[in-house]
Design a protein that fits this description.
heterodimer; A: 108 residues; mainly beta; six-stranded mixed sheet; four-stranded antiparallel sheet; B: 122 residues; seven-stranded mixed sheet; 11 strands; 57% strand
């Protein structure tokens, strides 16, 4: 399969923990990377590999993976975390990239 | 600090060819990188268009493969995208991005261009 599936929308209370998931067969073979996108801006890498954060990404962002599901967890969500989040990975053939449909995170 | 700066025509007519360039500044162009093009139609999600790696090998989205060409000019540190026979469905913001990879381990697209809005309209 070349698809990654995400919930379209998730909400979280300020300061609480939220998990955003991404499902796809290719995730059994490849790690997902996660991107945050705010309106009018280019996406920003927040997690890659097993659970690696690029420099400058707060440690409240973490990643995990189990079977065909990758997860992005924000522990203690802040107002500035409100954004669209996309997962991305290689597809099962290993020759193409694929994005999930995106999850709109609302911080209440 | 590596930056990607992209440019190209922003308004096209149906059947024309989209042509965008992405220049790499402030860092090495060589190395085990994948140079990618991604697009985002208005109000929609991200779509991978294709990529070229350090060896010059290309991979394309199967849904666009017949119309897409990605190439690299190492002398100018530039990556190019051409998409032929455009239609209104190709209207989108187009991004270039870089990802480091080692065999089957990918380090994420850590640097992105600023995006170029391309509108296809008669």
């Amino acid at each position: 399969s070349s698809e990654l599936t995400q919930d379209p929308a998730v909400s979280v209370a300020l300061g609480q923990t939220v998990r955003i998931t991404c499902q796809g067969d290719s995730l059994r073979s490849y790690y997902a990377s996660w991107y945050q996108q705010k309106p009018g801006q280019a996406p920003v890498l927040v997690i890659y590999g097993k659970s690696n954060r690029p420099s400058g990404i707060p440690d409240r962002f973490s990643g995990s993976s189990s079977g065909n599901t990758a997860s992005l967890t924000i522990t203690g969500a802040q107002a500035e975390d409100e954004a669209d989040y996309y997962c991305n990975s290689r597809d099962s053939s290993g020759n193409h990239q694929v994005f999930g449909g995106g999850t709109k995170l609302t911080v209440l | 600090q590596v930056q990607l700066q992209q440019w190209g025509a922003g308004l096209l007519k149906p059947s024309e060819t989209l042509s965008l360039t992405c220049a790499v500044y402030g860092g090495s162009f060589s190395g085990n990188y994948y140079w990618r093009w991604i697009r985002q139609p208005p109000g929609k999600g991200l779509e991978w268009i294709g990529e070229i790696n350090h060896s010059g090998s290309t991979n394309y989205n199967p849904s666009l493969k017949s119309r897409v060409t990605i190439s690299v000019d190492t002398s100018k540190n530039q990556i190019s995208l051409k998409l032929s026979s455009v239609t209104a469905a190709d209207t989108a913001v187009y991004f270039c991005a870089r990802e480091l990879a080692s065999r089957d381990y990918f380090y994420g697209m850590d640097v992105w261009g600023q995006g170029t809005t391309v509108t296809v309209s008669s």
